[in-house]
Amino acid sequence: MSGKNAFYAQSGGVTAVINASGCGVIETARKYKDKIGKVYAGRNGIIGALTEDLIDTSFESDEAIAALRHTPSGAFGSCRYKLKGLDVSKREYDRLMEVFKAHDIGYFFYNGGGDSADTCHKVSQLGEKMGFPIQAIHVPKTVDNDLPITDNCPGFGSVAKYIAVSTREASYDVRSMSKTSTKIFVIEVMGRHAGWIAAAGGLAADAENDIPIIILFPEVEFNQEKFLAAVKAKVEKYDYCTIVVSEGCHHPDGRFLAEQGTKDAFGHAQLGGAAPVVANMIKDAHGYKFHWAVADYLQRAARHLASKSDVEQAYAMGKAAVEFAVAGENAIMPTVVRKSSSPYVWEVGKAPLSEVANVEKMMPKEFISEDGYGITDACREYLVPLIQGEEYPPYNNGMPSYVTLKNTPIEKKLPEFTL
Is residue 385 in some structural domain? Predict the structure, then answer.
C-alpha cells in the first residue's frame, strides 16, 4: 500500500540543471512506492498548487523522466510568486491545505533559491500552526550561488563554466582584432548582490592564457576614475581588455549601473544594461572601439556546456530531498558539503530552513583581489572544481535533443481560486 502523494514544483529563474533535480525527485520517489504515492508537479511553481493546476507525472515514461537530466529550463513551468506570512496570507495557506487534502498530498518539494526556501519554510509550518501534517523539503537551485550553508548551489557551476568559456573565447577574438579595430569587450553577467558569476569570468585567464580581465563585482563599490585608469593600463600593456560586469555593480550611493527604474514581483529592482553603460564610459574617456554582450538567458540555459559536477549535484539534491522526507525530516534543505578541493570530494548534508530562508551568501573578501578587479588563488581553488567535466546532452541532426513532457493535468476537485 502506497503512502501520501508528493507535490514538486520549480520556482524562480530556471537553470541548465534544475530539471536534473526534478529527475532526481521523481525517479527516487518511484523507488519508494510503499511510502510515496504519485508525484504531482505544480504547473508554474506554487501557483499550480494554489490554482489546483497539478500535473500527474505518472503519465510520463521512465525514459522521459530520465531525459530531464539533460534538458534545460523548467519542465513544469516556474514562477516568481512570493507567499507572505501565515498571518498576512491566511487565505492562501487555507487554499494550499484544501488542495493538499483534496489530493492526499503529504510531501512538498520546492526547487528554487532564497525566496523559494522562504516559501518552503512557511509551508512546513502548516502542520505546526494550522494542524495540517506535511513534510516540506527545499531543493536548492540558484545560478547566483547565494544560498547559505551549502558549499555551492546547483545551477551555478554550469553558468560559471559558460561565462568562463565565453570570456576566454571572446577575449581571443578581441585580441586578434585589437591592432586596428576593437580593443574593448564587455560582457554583462547575472548576480544582483553576489559576484559569484562575475568571478567565474576570471577563470578565463590562467597560467597558459594571459588575458587582461577586469571584473566589476557587486561587492565592490564602483569608482569610475579608478576603473578607467585600470582599463587604460591594461590596453597600454596588452592592446586590448575584457571587462566582466555583474548586473549588480553599483555606485557608492547604491544606484545600480544597470538600474531601469522598474521592479519585479518580489520588489527587487529590475536590472539589465550595465554593459553598454560601461562600454560607452570607456569610449567617452579613451576613445577605444568596443563591443559588448549581455549573457542574460544564454548563461543559464546553456545545457550543451553544463558542468558535469553541477549536473551530478543537482540530481543528488533532488534524490536526497526524497530520501530525507521518507526518513521523516521536515523543514530542511539538502546541501553540498565540500570535503576536499583537490581532488574534488563532496557529500550530501542538510540545513534547517530557518537558517536558509532570506539569507544571502556574499563573496568572501579573500576571494577578491586587492585592487578589487580580479579573483584570488583562494577563489580559483573554490571555483575550478565546480566547472569540472562535461555531460553533453544527446544530439540529433546536429542539435541537442531535449524532452518536452506531456504534463497531463489531474482532474480538479475544488472551486476556482483567484490569485
Answer: no
Final residue of a structural domain among 260, 282, 303: 303
Query: Left, alpha or beta for 164 (phi > 0: left; psi -120 to 50: alpha)?
Result: alpha
Q: Which residues pair with 375 in a beta bridge?
A: 368
Question: Does residue 371 fall inside a structural domain?
Answer: no
In a domain, 107, yes or no: yes
**Same domain for 177 and 276:** yes
Query: Are 326 and 347 within one domain?
Result: yes
Looking at the structure of the chain, the number of domains it has is: 2
Among 144, 210, 253, 284, the one annotated catalytic: 144
Give the contacts of 192 (CB within 8 A, at least 6 positions apart). 144, 218, 247, 248, 268, 271
- According to DSSP, the β-strands at 399-400 and 344-352 are unpaired
Cα separation, 331 vs 353, in Å, equals: 5
Q: Which residues of 82-99 are buried (b: 16+ CB within 10 A; e: fewer)?
A: bbeebeeeeebbebbbbb
Q: Do residues 77 and 10 touch, judged by C-beta distance below 8 A? A: yes
Interatomic CA distance for residues 351 and 138, integer angstroms:
10
- Please indicate, yes or no, if residue 257 is contained in any of the structural domains: yes
> In which domain, by residue range, is 332 found?
5-141+304-359+391-400
pTM: 0.95
Alpha-carbon distances of 189 from 147, 160, 174, 382, 415, rounded to whole Å: 18, 10, 18, 19, 43
Query: From CA 143, how far away is CA 165, in angstroms rounded?
Result: 16
Per-residue pLDDT of the chain (419 residues; tens, 9 = 90+): 479 999 999 999 999 999 999 999 999 999 999 999 999 999 999 999 999 999 999 999 999 999 999 999 999 999 998 888 778 888 999 999 999 999 999 999 999 999 899 999 999 988 777 788 899 999 999 999 999 999 999 999 999 999 999 999 999 999 999 999 999 999 999 988 899 999 999 999 999 999 999 999 999 999 999 999 999 999 999 999 999 999 999 999 998 887 655 555 555 655 558 999 999 999 999 999 999 999 999 999 999 999 999 999 999 999 999 999 999 999 999 999 999 999 999 999 999 999 998 888 999 999 999 999 999 999 999 999 999 999 999 999 999 999 999 999 999 999 999 99
- 111 φ/ψ sector (left φ>0, alpha ψ -120 to 50, else beta): beta
Cis ω on the peptide bond leading into residue 343 (within 30° of 0)? Answer: yes
Check if 144 is active-site: yes
